[in-house]
Amino acid sequence: MNIKLVLPYRTMLDQPVDKITAPGTEGSFQVLPKHIDVVWSLQPGILTLTKNNQDEYYAIQQGTLVKEGDAVVVSTFQAVKGESLEKLHESLMESVQKQDEKEKKAREALVKLETDTIRRFMEIES
Question: Is the pTM for the entire model greater than 0.85?
């Protein structure tokens, strides 16, 4: 079967796999080629793709998995690839740190904008 991992801004992955293990909202589940067509809701967790007894790991946010025939589409807001669970953990930590830095810069910019706006209103009143 073929899996597509789709993010809001790009297709991250499009390749054949033998087995998919996904974090469903009702618990982890596996998808094999002869499974019936179905739609699952996903929760944040680890998506494991197996091909030729080799595993690839992706940390994903919530999303959906749709299986139709031999095509599987996973749609999620964010995904991070790791070659092993340890490397995935490292990648996630880096991603969280980068996100924290972006949020800090955004908060600083917002505070500056609010301060400038208040100062300008005070100048107008004077």
Answer: no
pLDDT in tens, 79-112: 888 777 777 777 766 776 777 778 788 888 888 8
Q: 105 exposed, middle or buried (CB, 10 Å; 0-12, 13-18, 19+)?
A: exposed
User: Within 13 Å of residue 124, how many CA atoms lie on the same side as its CB?
Assistant: 6
For the stretch 12-69, pLDDT in tens is 999 999 999 999 988 899 999 999 999 999 988 889 999 999 999 998 888 999 999 9
User: Could you give the C-alpha distances from 82 to 27, 36, 49, 92, 123, in angstroms and in order?
Assistant: 22, 29, 11, 9, 54
From residue 22, give the alpha-carbon distance in Å to each of 41, 108, 117: 10, 38, 48
Strands 2-7, 71-76: pairing kind: parallel
The residue type of 36 is I
